[in-house]
């Protein structure tokens, strides 16, 4: 019987330079690095193991942590539940984690002190802004915002990241909250590059959070609502399972529709100037104005009557012309329909939106079974746009 393959994290190095710190680990002959500005990094077995969970699960590998103690008991129990959920969704095998150091008794039983400081992942999107204001309303504002280069903004797109860092500085200053900037090449690593980002982005966020010292309460804004029970890498019943004895993860906002969040945010000048929903576009624009997410959000903004104030959407072409050029997958099509259906759109835009919906439906041979819970919405979408083709629902 051949030996089980191993995903090895070793040769861990920690460097400090002024206000910046960098951690590196050798993985399959390549350096995985994480660099933090404005905070403290600390190597933890929970972090490295978290980075390896999905790649090891899908390749049948074990995770080997060199010169590291075992992850704590709380993390291990949560990870077992997490992996059972993920293998149920996507297949694969729950990976074994091998270490070569004995942990101290506090780490072994998950009794290390958990700092009280709160850290919020902040990308500048609708869900991030909503989570920020919700935490402030509840009297538990974040002590720091964490912005990550290398996740949805490519490391090579320095123009976009620098423009948005300027926006983040205004947001941070207005709310008197510290800003941490993290960079990582995780998504470019060979062991991670082939993994679906939809499936792994939650684990990526959890991994970097486990490396940041001094913050024990970690907040992640929702990606979608609890009523949409579809497999995804970050959701209400997943994020809490990233917790360890020294880090507790919170999921914010999954009980509220994204369109409702945007309606609540539309009158805020910071949101009007700095909302960033786009992950496709490159360059200095906050939002490309060409992708389905940009266009869908612009429809949501139109419903509030505040579109003239949203300087973050600055594409020179009319919205109807841009709709004529795009297509979308079925899941975002439902969100697009929800944004348009209750509005009295200008005639040219109404025609362009419905034509885009029909054009996109033509490319969908069937409705995947994970969208079965949205059958009523999909059938309403079909009637709304006048689609005359057949759409089969997978059983």
Commentary on this structure:
The protein has 395 residues and is an alpha/beta fold. It has 3 domains: 6-108, no CATH class; 118-252, Rossmann fold, CATH 3.40.50; 288-393, no CATH class. The protein is 39% helix and 19% strand. It has 14 helices and 14 strands. The strands form 3 sheets. The protein has a 10-stranded mixed beta sheet, sandwiched between helices. A two-stranded antiparallel sheet has the order 4-10. A hairpin with a 2-residue loop joins strand 1 (6-17) and strand 2. Helix 4 packs across helix 8 and helix 13 crosses helix 14 (375-385). The longest helix has 18 residues, at 73-90. The model has no long low-confidence stretch (mean pLDDT 92).
Task: Please render the helix and strand layout as text.
Blueprint: E1 6-17, E2 20-27, E3 30-37, E4 40-41, H1 45-59, E5 62-69, H2 73-90, E6 97-101, H3 105-108, E7 118-121, H4 126-137, E8 144-149, H5 158-175, E9 178-184, H6 190-193, H7 197-209, E10 212-213, E11 217-221, E12 248-252, H8 258-265, H9 269-274, H10 292-304, H11 319-323, H12 330-340, H13 347-361, E13 366-367, H14 375-385, E14 392-393
Parallel strand pairs: 1-5, 5-6, 7-8, 7-11, 8-9, 11-12, 13-14
Antiparallel strand pairs: 1-2, 2-3, 3-9, 4-10
Short description:
39% of the residues lie in helices and 19% in strands. It is an alpha/beta fold.
Number of domains: 3
Q: Strand fraction band?
A: 15-25%
How many strand elements? Answer: 14
Structural class assignment: alpha/beta
Please state how the strands of the largest beta sheet are arranged side by side: 6-5-1-2-3-9-8-7-11-12
